[in-house]
Amino acid sequence: MEIKYYPPVFLQNSFHCPHCNVYSHMKWGDTCLDSYYNKYLCSIAFCNHCKKHSIWLKETKEMLYPKKINTPLPNEDLKENIKQIYNEAAIILNDSPRAACALMRLALQELMKELGEKGKDLASDILNLKNKGLDEQIIKACEIVRIVGNNAVHPGIIDINDNPEIAYCLFEMINLIAEKLITQKIKTEKLFNKIQNLKNKK
Ligand SMILES: [Zn+2]
């Protein structure tokens, strides 16, 4: 079953909780009373699943807590297990960019299996794809996710926790790789089938 990811939205009844990432019902209330004007400045949403709360500024409809870097949604055509890893990484991105990078590396590893590789040794999988003549830009994107992910596991030159932007880029990279290798293939196949069907009709 395909489960869509519903990002947190102000005053929405249900969404994927920014704490537990479960799609759950939210109970809304008001908080932060401005006693001078006698009005509430913030709204608060309680997650029915983990019982934790998020705090929102009414004026801008922005989530103030938990603080979250908004990552793009995962590519629709990614398999559910990869989307789960992706969303898990998105949740912890603020608290630990390093851990997020390690998870994104794992997501790439899973993606390799989809592409017919073993998914165990990322370096050799990427090399295999390269030898099969895969687009050079995509090979480069895979290499970046691999190297940054390795760096997250065995800290080297880059301190990822000091550069959350690096982690953020990996989310875009994974989507880019999925778009090129999965989505475009699906689109091409659909078109091909359409033409095939039209030919059969005649
Ligand atoms: Zn929750």
Describe this structure in words.
The chain is flat and about 70 Å long. With 202 residues, the chain is α+β, with helices and mostly antiparallel strands. The longest helix is centred in the C-terminal third of the chain and has 38 residues. It folds into two domains: 52 residues, no CATH class; 117 residues, Four Helix Bundle (Hemerythrin (Met), subunit A) (Up-down Bundle), CATH 1.20.120. Helix 2 packs parallel to helix 5. It is built from five helices and five strands. The relative contact order is 0.11. It has a five-stranded antiparallel beta sheet, with no helix packed on it. The mean pLDDT is 89. Zinc ion (ZN) binds next to loops.
Characteristics of this structure?
5 helices, binds zinc ion, alpha+beta, five-stranded antiparallel beta sheet, 202 residues, Four Helix Bundle (Hemerythrin (Met), subunit A)
Kindly name the structural category: alpha+beta
Stated plainly, the CATH topology of the largest domain is called Four Helix Bundle (Hemerythrin (Met), subunit A)
Q: What compounds are bound to the protein?
A: zinc ion
Assign a percent range to the helix content. Answer: 40-55%
What's the alpha carbon Rg, rounded to whole Å? Answer: 21 Å
Number of strands: 5
Number of domains: 2
CATH architecture of the largest domain: Up-down Bundle
Mean pLDDT: 89
Please trace the helix and strand order, writing H or E for each element.
EEEEEHHHHH
Q: Spatial order of the strands in the main sheet?
A: 1-2-3-4-5
Number of helices: 5
Unreliable spans are none
For this structure, what is the CATH class of the largest domain?
A: Mainly Alpha
